[in-house]
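fyi for ur records
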Amino acid sequence: MNRRTLTDALKSISVFALLALAAPACKKDGATTGAPAADEILIGEVGSLTGGEATFGKSTHNGIELALKQVNGAGGVKGKKLRLLTLDDQGKPEEAATTVTKLITQDKVTAILGEVASSRSLAMAPIAQSYKVPMITPSSTNPRVTAVGNYIFRVCFIDPFQGAVMAKFAANTLKVTKVAILRDVKNDYSVGLANFFTETFKKAGGEIVADQSYSAGDVDFKSQLTSIKGKNPQAIFVPGYYTEVGLVARQARELGIKVPLMGGDGWDSEKLTEIGGDALNGSFFSNHYSPDDMSPQVQKFIADYKSVFNTIPDGLAAMGYDAAMVLVDAMKRANSFSGEDIRQAIADTKNYQGVTGVITINENRDAVKSAVVIEVKTKKFVFKEKINPS
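which gave:
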């Protein structure tokens, strides 16, 4: 082992040790770590409670917490209460891998909920798979996540569907034929979604007139946007996360670009309009649910969520809630609390009525479900239309 390798190894050990010591402070439910009591089941959660995408992690955690609180209030699962252990990965894939390892090897959790972002789920999934611990991601949409193995599931739609939804929306609803793309090249989610959008839009007869890129953390997009402006697109597809998207919108309008911006569920955060302001008016993104849905189940979820967190839940909160409830439903049906039995019960999930729609887990461990298109109007997210799987 050379000096650099030894140094890196010591750093990794130090990070792991510090994380283990700090774990109780990272949790939201006040529970302590350690083996479960005889009358409880430990559920692990990994999320971005801090960092550039903290609203994703916080909203998802709130949804999970609400679900498990309701389940415990109704008696738990087969006479056992559920205890949630939540660790913060700071929005970093390497931290996601470290925290999921701790939850599995030290805390001995029965199942894992998380992560939200595909890049971080891809860092976690091989670990959960190797230890045969069922993992459900609420909203990682990259197809490669569940392809890792038979213990990895999701309750959200996948990017081929989401990309197709927005491509069809562009062609059929917006009636545009020329679109530019601005993608985050360091983000598996953004790259995949851009590719699937391109494929479907071209099949519909559309043309991609420009395909520019940036990297997460960038703050200046004027060079890419100037190049895009010169191609005269009728819309721009920006499949990134809310922090960069908000800045892109502001800079696009400053350059005189007036065409609609489009994106995916990575836009879903109250921070989007805080950053982008009125520059986002008339823009559209695909999402998992809309608070405008007047179904009794959705409205009850919103009322329950508001009573605890004093705000209207976003799509990430709804996905966290559904991920937890799909896990609970599977645990109730499983022959035992073993990883294999829970895994099989999750795989057998059919027509589960979730807040974000009817969820059926297919042979690839993906959820087959509908998507909604949201329009941004005066800093509000307004339901535009619903698109079902073909």
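The chain has twelve helices and 15 strands. thats all i got for now
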